[in-house]
Design goal:
The protein is α/β, with parallel strands linked by helices. About 30% of the residues lie in helices and about 20% in strands. A 7-stranded parallel sheet has the order 1-10-9-6-2-3-5, covered by helices on one side. A 3-stranded antiparallel sheet has the order 4-8-7, covered by helices on one side. The two termini are about 15 Å apart. The model has no long low-confidence stretch (mean pLDDT about 95). The structure holds 2-amino-2-deoxy-6-O-phosphono-alpha-D-glucopyranose (GLP).
């Protein structure tokens, strides 16, 4: 894994946006793997600025998002579809028909997950995938599990730790969905290039566990160490315990 340590969140976001812009400029019809959470917001802001100021062109770009709460409707302002529209899709010239976010209203989640995986394959795989990291080392919603991880897109139960971490966005703990649809580690590994971002002291333990030199399903992010093209861009605070 290549590691780049930046001074702060802004520098991390600018570098990540550069990586994405380079892929878009090289391949107009590329497939972007996208993530939600606080971490990539700055990167999306930079990409919007590049579109507005330098004409970065998303017209032929497709995207695949990592995860979505289940159940949740797309118009709920806590849904990841809403987040993506709000932070990126509504501000660039991407065709929303080419954007894919797992469907939090799917009646048959198992069939939906199989179709989502097939969709990623039909698009030809992901050219560049951005990831955040959970405080417990999760990626997407692949929660730590000593008994193993499900490789492909699946419906999963959220851990108490994640429900608590994500409750800050909801008016009460009870409103946080207890399940989510998520790409699995194998789905993520279909990306040709992965950029994982981490910012702030709250992520320092997770970053340390990821880089501890031991691959383990109790820290799903540690599995990234065996992908051939992963860059960790993190700020000094997130790197402070390595
Ligand atoms: C959420 C998301 C992840 C995200 C992580 C970190 O649970 N499912 O994809 O990477 O938490 O979020 P944040 O960037 O807000 O710290």
């Amino acid at each position: 894994m290549k590691v780049i340590v930046t001074k702060n969140y802004e520098e991390m976001s600018a570098l990540a946006a550069k990586e994405f812009a380079a892929v878009i400029q090289n391949k107009a019809d590329c497939v972007l793997g996208l993530a939600t959470g606080d971490t990539p917001i700055g990167m999306y802001r930079e990409l919007v600025a590049m579109h507005e100021k330098n004409g970065l062109d998303f017209s032929k770009v497709s995207s695949v998002n990592l995860d979505e709460y289940y159940p949740i409707t797309p118009d709920n302002d806590q849904s990841y579809r809403y987040f993506m529209n709000y932070h990126l899709f509504d501000h660039v010239n991407i065709d929303k028909a080419n954007t894919n976010v797992p469907d939090g209203t799917a009646v048959d989640p198992d069939t939906f997950c199989r179709d989502y995986e097939a969709k990623i394959d039909a698009l030809g795989g992901i050219d560049i995938q951005v990831l955040g990291i959970g405080r417990n080392g999760h990626i997407g919603f692949n929660e730590p599990d000593a008994n193993g991880l499900i490789p492909d897109t699946h419906l999963t139960d959220l851990t108490a730790n994640t429900i608590e971490a994500n409750s800050r966005f909801f008016s009460s703990m009870d409103e946080v969905p207890k399940q989510a649809l998520t790409m699995g580690i194998h789905s993520v590994f279909k990306a040709r290039k992965i950029v994982i971002l981490a910012s702030g002291e709250g992520k320092a333990d997770a970053v340390r566990a990821m880089l501890a030199g031991k691959i383990t399903t109790t820290c799903p992010a540690s599995l990234l160490c065996i992908h051939p093209d992963v860059t960790l861009i993190c700020d000094e605070a997130a790197y402070s315990k390595v």
